[in-house]
Amino acid sequence: MLENIEFIKSVYLIKDLPKASKPEVILCGRSNVGKSSLINSLFNRKNLAKTSSTPGKTRSINYYEVDRKFFLVDLPGFGYAKISKKERLHWALLIESYLAESRNVSLAFHLIDSRHKPTELDLKLHELLEYYRMSYSIILTKIDKLNQSQLAKVKRDITEIFPGLDIGYNLFAYSSVKGTGKKLIIQKLASIY
Ligand code: GTP
Ligand code: MG
Ligand 2: distance of its center to the CA of 103 in Å? Predict the structure, then answer.
């Protein structure tokens, strides 16, 4: 279970999505929220997915294959201000058309930085995931930055904003640095096949 991960390809245009049909688990959320770090830490790989403290590191849809069973898909982050309008539009279109294709998305992980309130764009993304009837989970990231009572409050607040979230089922709290929450996320991934 979650033993082998292999980089397949980076996609910049929808027409270049892999032809192979496998279940897909997608990682989406704001730029810098920790999507690429999640991949590395789940598989104990330091630099498989490129990460950066500068937002906007991942600019393509990156496909990984796990245990030859499903694709793990690292989507480019949104909300990064320091890029040209043209490039931002390209990103938005790429992600929307990716979701619209809906292909074989078995699960969408929407990552939200536990230190920050969900933004307008998080609400938009949530709407999109609901609109396309995706099965989604929210992962609160970087929880190593919070103490227990702060974390408890964040969990309460997030379930108010997005009703219907259940901790351990479709709401997770994670630290890529410490590995906190890893077991539950791996269990969730295991449930798709
Ligand atoms: P884009 O590719 O720009 O969309 O960003 P991303 O969501 O892939 O974020 P990335 O994984 O590159 O992480 C951004 C920054 O946050 C890096 O400096 C990471 O080291 C840091 N980071 C990620 N996860 C954690 C975490 O769990 N705890 C802490 N303290 N820092 C983290
Ligand atoms: Mg990234």
Answer: 22
- For residue 77, give the ligand 1 atom closest to its CA: 4
Which residues, including other chains, have CB under 8 Å from residue 99's CB and lie 6 or more apart? 105, 128, 129, 132, 134
Decide: helix, strand or coil at residue 137. Answer: strand
pLDDT tens, position by position, 100-112: 876 789 999 999 9
Q: Give the model confidence (pLDDT) of 74-99 as tens digits.
A: 988 877 666 677 776 777 777 788 88
pTM higher than 0.70, yes or no?
yes
Distance 134 CA to ligand 1 centre (A): 24
Residue owning the nearest CA to atom 31 of ligand 1: 142
The 3 state secondary structure assigned to 95-109 is HHHHHHHCCCEEEEE
Options 3.90.550.10, 3.40.1080.10, 1.20.1250.20, 3.40.50.300; CATH for 5-192 is: 3.40.50.300
Q: How far apart are CA 55 and CA 106, in angstroms?
A: 27
The ranges assigned to domains in the chain are: 5-192
